[in-house]
Model the fold of this input.
Amino acid sequence: MTDVSIIIVNYKSWPVLKECLTSLNNITLNNYVSEVIVVDNNSQDGYFSQFTQTFPEINFILNSGNFGFSQACNLGASHAQGTYFLFLNPDTIMSQSTLEALLDCAHKHSDYKLISCQKVNEKGVYEKFNKPLPSLMTLFGLLRVFQKPPNITNPNHVPTKNDVVFPAWLSGSLILMSQEWFEIIGGWNEDYWMYYEDVDLSNKTSLLNGIIVLIKDVEIIHKHGGSTRTSQTIKALSKTEVIISRHVYVHNNFKGIKKILAQLILIISIMISKTTLLFLSLFMYFIPKLRVNISIFKNLFIYYFNALKNTTWLSQRSIKFRKNM
Done:
């Protein structure tokens, strides 16, 4: 009987994945049985077979293509035996106390449907966890200054050891849920190739009256961007997909005139900012950080052209996955 299946999605993130798997191998759980599943999104760089030999106790699954984070999470879950699924980024380092605290919380509170903890980077800076769900006020930078932070406390909550707060959504870098809840909400939404799938998952949980919690006094190390900034090409791709996923989220979760207005404002604000950065990049091509904006602008131009042509907000990578099903 497996208590928890730890599911990790990898794409060319082998150095940080090695640290993550080593940290998991160093954990000896006293009251739980665990398994680790790594889904590699077809990295095709020669490291897959090397890692299967280095970590023989871990279940490695080679995906048939890079069809995105959500699809790979669902693929890993389809092979999982655990009562609980812990979705974990490869650029994290886990400790025994944190893993046990997460599992203890899930066992004691069956009404907690999504559970996470604090994330801290290598410089000791904690990630913000009181971010609101996307709305017309929060989608756009200029309007965010007028939005109050969401209330993450519960007046009926009695503080205990490993106390929790109740954020609007949890980062997909670490989310624990039961296998039962995973089935109820239909897993991860594969409309998202990368980014905003965690926001969508949290929103879906809230709509079904599931409670979302974050444990305040335990943490993992999260080398933020360690799995998406390995090259200029991947960095441009990931930044483009953030924008695409905003459009997908609006399409999936906004209604009526609000949806139309949000999509139009998104397009206008994004193209103004990216066109400005494009001209800066052309004049200062010698700065590598600026050069990536040329690729982002090109990616967005292709995306908007295909969105108009195919009448869909989905990423071409998500569409490719559907064609390969």
Remarks:
- Strands lie at 4-10, 34-40, 59-62, 84-88, 92-93, 112-120, 164-165, 174-178, 211-222.
- The chain has two domains: 4-222, 232-324.
